[in-house]
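Justification of resources, computational component.

The compute hours requested in this renewal are based largely on the per-chain cost of generating structure records like the one below. Each record pairs the submitted sequence with a full structure-token output. That output is archived, and it is also reused by downstream analysis tasks.
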Amino acid sequence: MSLNIYTDAPSKIDMFEGKAHENLAQKISEIAQDDDINIIGLDGYLGSGKSTIIDMAIDKIKGNDIHVIKFDSEIYHYGATKKALIDILYDGFKQTPNVNLDELLKCKDLALGNIYNYKKIINSKISIWTVAFICSTILSLQSLRYFISDLSGLFTTNHLPFSYYVKVALEFILVFSPVAIGLFYVNGKNISEENGTKKIKKPSLGDILKRNSEDTITEKIIINKEVGTLELKSALEGFVKCTPESARLILIVDNLDRISPTKIKEIWSDIELITEIAGSNLKIIIPYSGKHVAQALSDDGHEGLEFISKRIPVTFFVPPLISAGWRNGFIEFWKETFEIYDENECYEICELIERWLPKNYSTVTPRFIKRIINDIKVTSLTFPTFTHDRILVSFYVLMCRYSLLDFKSLIMNYDERKQKDDDIIEVVRMQVTHRQFNRIFDSADDWKKGLICIHFQTNSEFAISELIEDPLLNSIKYRKPKEYIELSSMYGFDKTWRKALHESSIEDLILFLESMSTTDKSRAHKICDEIITQANKNKLLKGEYVKNIVDALVNVNNHVKLNSNEFFLVERVTALKNRIKNPSAFYDLDEVARMNTFEELNSLVSITEEKFSDNFSDISGEIFFEFLLGKNELYQNLDIENLILSLPQLVNGIVFSLKNEIEFNLFSEQVIEGMKINNANFEDLIDGEVYAAIEERYKKFMAGAELNSIIDLRILCLDKRWRKTNLTSYFPYQAKLLEDHPEEYYASLIAHKINIGDKSSVPGIPSLELTSSFKETLYNYLLFSNNLDVIVGALAIEELKPYIAPSLNFILDRGKVKRLHTNTFIRTLYGPLRDITSVEKIMEFFKDWDSFSDSSIGEKNHDQINQDFIYDLRVVDTLPKFKEKIKSFISDKLSTKTSVIEFIKQASAVHLEMISLVESNGGTIEFSNLTRIFSDFYSEEDIKQLSKNNNIPSIIPLLNADDLDEVLKSLMDLLERKDLDSLRQIYVIRDFGEYLKYDQSNQSDNRAIARLFTYSNDYNFLAKWLDVQSFSLSKWNSADKKTVESFVLNNSDLFPTLIKTRYFQKRIVSNQEATEALETEEDTKA
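The structure output for this chain reads:
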């Protein structure tokens, strides 16, 4: 298959409409033949076709005996540029007719330094060994003939003289002397000095001759080390002299804009030199990019352009290709390259070129057209073909190869992308391009698949896997949410994401979700449900505690609210709770696992939002004291402050801490919350074994040594000796505690004095300020007292009462007494407590002991019950059993005639208060069998006793209606008895007058009642009672009637009601008339 690839060689014809290139070539060829202009410039963009124009111009000139010399600056960029220029010029001048070639060559050789003269002087020396060796060799050769002859004589002649042997020996020495000298020479040492260093080397046999002897050479060489401007000038002058005046040459300096700025400046200098020396014989044509050359000549581009205009007065400009022109040219190039031509395909590609022309191209150039067509052609060979594939190839080449954009940006979804000010144009262009592709292809998936195939040069499945899957997995594994966000807008993401969910570990997914939640909340919301679903499936957190995973979940929850009922969370929290609820299994774990249990639970409940305290109403005291007590800040989500330990567990925790010497604050919130005065568990702890932790502090305190802290001082409360032994004399030794914690010091001292019953004064206490913190501290210490009695008893100490009272109020308010002797409370303690607090507060505190009323209210010492206690029961709604017991007690007290008579005669204030209490509560007492008691009392009791005040008015309200009616009937009978002393009847009216109503309907004899009127002046209550009764005096016998009428009329002021009745009004009128008649009669008589 033919590739039809374009090379960078200039085109032979102008393929673009308008023929701008051909027109320029024509004009340049005409001006180049003008002797007045020596240098011509051709300015144009890189790849705009300058070389093509020059070649076309040269073709038009060649027929006019003008020789063209072409110097490619780029080829000789990294070599000796001037030397190359001389060689190029020599080759060009050599082609000129009638040129002196010998002189021309000589000029070139002289300029390049090929010809040079020098003088050489050599001084040599011969070694003594050499002289000796040569002489011995000559003697050896001369003696050899004689030695052979004489040696043979030794074997043929007998009895030779001694001189003969001497002769042979001398001849032998002479013959072998060269060998001996050579051996001596070789075994000797040759010492030489080089650069000031002596070197010893063993000579070879060859060195005995003058082979390595030392020579001194002196030379004088006339040669230049480098070909410079002078050499170039010399060569040009020589070349011009050797050339006929009629000769015309054109030097084309090409690719000047493709070399480094340093080389441009160097060649620019050479051009100036050439134009100055060559004159009209050598014209120069320079195609260049003005922008690049100007920047090379000067940092200021405008100044560089001035330099160019000064040196090149005549400059042609290559016009940019108009859109229609380059599009037609593109089509022509396309037809030559591709066998199949599709007009629509070319149109779409041209649209892409115009929209995405790389920034380094100001306009579309011929070179660019060739380049992109070549790249489309070559790239199309490397992947499976598909419909309209070359359109996508052109887009890929423009974006990824020319503009160097990341391939991922080509297949992102730009419809949902937020546009920023700095990339709004690119986003809009990309949106237009995507709409173009959506129009060409059936769907966005098709053209995105095609781009992926082009990029990876394989089918789409492998390509998508390579493009998205691995980067997506890496973005999850290495927690790079920004990369994930970029990938999410790419084709095939949804499918790859679901695959990644299964291939990534759940731990990596959770950590990635954490990173995403801090980067993009909205996107984190989208993926959260899927990841949490995986967490449920994989039972995340099922194994050992992994801190970074749990922390990640907490951070995710802070940004993206998780469902508190997620299975894996509920399962893990439940498992941790069960672990804590089983102390034996919990302590089977290693220490790290135990600590991690609470750390992990603290983190997880911040997500589940459940209260730890709700699930642990009776947490193990050992676990609480070792891992939770005082850790409120460390485990803020476990609401430790709301954990309430049962008293047994609280004691267990204290014992555990004491045994294992775990330091704890005895006044911590949980201990104080669970602590109550006179609690059996605490009493057993205090009265039991003295643990080493307590003993150590106690001995230190008794020794007068400073305790380490207030924690140690508080621990002493757990020692029974703190309650029983007077330790006040040791307190002054704790000067440091007094200085640092004066309130704690005095609170401990006061509580100790209260418990041991010490009523002496406390030194320094007047200076103590009664602050809220002191009240709380003393309250804490008082909770470890033996009972409430000793605290209330201390109120009698006037000095301490102001300090004790507030803390004692706290005890009552908070119900901090476990056991209480109710007999003592209502008899002894109630009064002092009533002095320092309200009745309601005391009764509210005491209501827990309401069930102990039977033992509190009894026959024994009931008179000692605090009267105020009975009185105050009327104003509160609490203590119903106490009220009922008092009623029962009063009922029992008034159950017999004797007891009632005794009560009437004399009753204690407490009993009277009890009756008032029963009355105020609307209670009554059964008197059905004792209704005659009162009539018997008035009729039988001594008159002196009756005259005294009694307690009958207190009893009357306790009678129910029926009993009261019976009592009143019997008393009315008593009032009507004529044989009874009137005083007894008067005392009945005194006590029962409020309830007695006189009824005369059943009476015919009213003598007893009439008699009572005569006592009205002496007993005001009697007059009031008689005044309000209803009497039918008209039915009375005349004697009784007369008695009453006379007394009432004469004492009308005592009977304001009776006197107003009709009966007495008539009597008053009759009396007045009688009086008037009498007066009239007397007047008449007079």
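The mean pLDDT is 82. Strands lie at 39-43, 66-72, 118-124, 190-194, 197-201, 215-221, 248-254, 282-288, 314-317.
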